[in-house]
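Archive maintenance. Older records in this collection stored only the sequence; we are now back-filling the structure field for every entry so that each record is complete. The fields below show one back-filled record exactly as it appears after the update. Entries are processed alphabetically, and Multivesicular body subunit 12A is next in the queue.

ARCHIVE ENTRY
Title: Multivesicular body subunit 12A
Organism field: Pundamilia nyererei
Length field: 264
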Amino acid sequence: MSLMERGNVRPVTAVAWASNSGTCPKDFTLISLTEDGASANFTRTFGMKSGYYLCYSKDSAGGMVVSDIRIISDKDSLPHGYCFIAEHLEPKATVSKKKRVCVRIVPVGSVETAVLDIKLTAKSKMMLQHYTFVGDIHGYVLWYRKGYFSKPTPQAKPRSVSLDIRQLSLEQQSPPLPLRPRYNAYVYLKWRCILLFSAALDGVPFSLHPKFETQANETNSDLNIPIKSLQDIENEYNYTFSVEENAAKRIRPSVQMAGIPSTQ
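Back-filled structure field:
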């Protein structure tokens, strides 16, 4: 096996069987001829009117590549990490299971080399330079070329510059300000009238009407409430606590001590 130089070569991403160009998927390349000019139509048995072709794809949308191809017999078990190739056939058409093609598909970022091309020859003695012999299957010989491949350039997603700057800032972002309530037209007009009326009275002198003025020690005739001086209040509510003093002076019964007779 010879690894080719690094270049702008897309890798093989899928391999499949197809009955003809009509059943071959649009993103696949159908191998209709061998390298030595023979028809590459795989016929299952003698006398069959239709066969099937090998095809491959280089569509990188799935993010996977084919890293290896093998041919196994019906008595061999499927190797670990491999899978049988897909079949895009006409109704009631089948592929021979005596020998089957299996591939190893891996993520594009996990390998440096992958399968770059697939070819078929009708003569086993024919050698293809820079290609690896896979095996013979149904009268044909399968070859593949493996090497370094060009990986798709990742496309940067559009991002907002202002958002990135805010995310990189070390300062804590302040919480958003609460929404201001909407003004009520009635309340606004009411307070505006009050303010205008107050402004119109600024500087006007204020005094109480004489009939509302009362002098000390005068009695209000309407409410009949006498106005008392401090001396009147002290004389009226003076309390000597004589009752409490008399109660304290009452003779209490004498207490006899235990074991001592009282004197007569």
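Update note: Confidence is low (pLDDT under 50) at residues 1-5. Strands lie at 14-18, 28-31, 53-57, 64-73, 83-84, 86-88, 99-107, 113-121, 132-137, 140-148.
Entry marked complete.
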